[in-house]
Input
Amino acid sequence: MAKFLDTVESVFNRFIKFLIAVVAASIGLFAILIPFNLLIVKTQLGSIWWLNEAIEYALYVGVFIGAPWVLQQGAHVRVDVLVSALPTKIAVHMERFLNIVGALICLILFVYGFRAAQLEFIFGTLPDKVLRIPNWYMLTVFSGSFFLLAIEFLFRIRRVGVIVLEETSSHPKAAF
Output
C-alpha cells in the first residue's frame, strides 16, 4: 500500500509542478504582452482590448491553482512559533492534527465551490465585463484548487515527521 501511495503522490507532485509551470508561463506572457500592448497603443496601431481582463482572470486562476504548490513547498502563511517551541513528538502530533483540520476545511470549500459552480452553470450566469467568461468556469477553478489542497494536506500527514524537522530547523526550505 505504501508503494502505491508513493506512486500516487509522485504523479500528484508532477501534476502540481505542471500547474505551477503554467502559472509561471502566464506571468511571463504578461511581461511580454503588457509592454507590447503599450507599444501598439502609443504607435496608434490598435490595442489588445481584452488584455486587462484576461490578466485579471489569469491572476485569479494562477493564485488558486498555485496554492497546492505553495503548500507543498511550505511557503504558505503560517505561524510556526508554537510548533517550534514544542518538543518534536508533540509538534508532530500537532502538525498531523492541523493537516487533518486543513484537509477537512478544504473539502468543505471544495463541496461549496462545486455546488456553486453547478448553480452558475444551470443559471448560465455571466459577469458584467467585456471579456465574458461564464462564472461557473471560475468557480470550478476555485473548487478544483481546494480539492488539490485537500489532497496535499493528506499527503502532508504522511510526511509529517519530515515537515516538522524542516519547518523547525534553523534553515527552513521556504521563508523570508
About this structure: Residues 2-168 form one domain. Residues 68 and 152 are 6 Å apart (CA to CA). The mean pLDDT is 90. The chain has one domain: 2-168.
